[in-house]
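Just scan my protein:

——
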Amino acid sequence: MTSHYTLPHRGGIETIVEKLSMALVQQGHQVRVVSSKIEGQSVFNLPQRGIIGIPAFDPFMRYGVHYPIFAPSLLPVLYQQVRWATLVHVQGMLYLNSLLGLLLARLLRRPAVLTEHAGYVPYSHPLLNLIQTLAVHTVGRLAIAFSNAIIVPDTIVQEILEKQFSVPSSKIVRIPLGVDTDLFHPISESEKQSLRIRLGWDERPKVLFVGNYVARKRIPLLLESISPRFDVVLCGEGYTSIRLPSQVLLYPPLGHEHLVQLYQAADLFVIPSKVETFAIVAYEAMACGLPVILTEDLSHLSLRESGQVQFVPATAADLQHTIHYLLDSPEESRQIGQQSAQWVQAHFSWNVSIARHLEIYQALTSSYS
């Protein structure tokens, strides 16, 4: 596998790589992951799962964009690992390590899988959009051409690939992201109150958002919706650059074992984003029994199929109104939370996601043998 980052760097793709690679190891397979080198990465090495960090420079990090530029040593390392592998799986079509991994897989006759999470993500900075557009039509198109199968997490990415890149539907496999439902689960009301005390929270309702401060997340919209009736809890990076209201509790990026406590202790979960392609944090919140509010811009996501998510116009007034309504309807909110957790358990557990990945791996390796 190759990914732009791995744990302990926090993000959705990093979590996918961790869960998928560990599941393969538990089933007796050997996995090597080539990624950018970060501090603390070595503690995730296991006898059957090695993580190989390549020195890299991340020039756009200040803009909330993670795109590491790798040292030249990436080429010989990837060549060695692709030659060793039975199958190659890359994360994200625009990353240079992904393209190089796919190219080497083609040259060395290894089946190759590309997971594309976004397709295209608009940014507020025109230069970033220009760079992304150029990358999409060069690196992205080549990555698509070199892959044998493309995994997407939701329908919007599939539509982008089919309409803008003319990728045949037979090459695309939709596998929703998995949620660790053993870790992310509802707790009783008494457990919730005890947890809130340990976190130092008072009795005021808490509305949670998990994610980094980037333009497409529209954090100012959520902050504008704050009323005297509730506090907002933010968890992520990039918030130190802005002035936050006194009713905001700020947490840095957290590992899942600590992040789950925020989900379980909160009253509601909100995503004010303009663009999301899978919104894994919403699935995690639902798994913990939280009612979830999203803007109507995200109504294309599979979350709608649950029938439990509240989609509202992207205005502070509408967001505030829906938050107040759910806070004033504790029994309805409890039922929404219960049904949300059951839906995620049935359709989006990691066991379901991993089984689908293994089906793809087995089909491709059989066709190459």
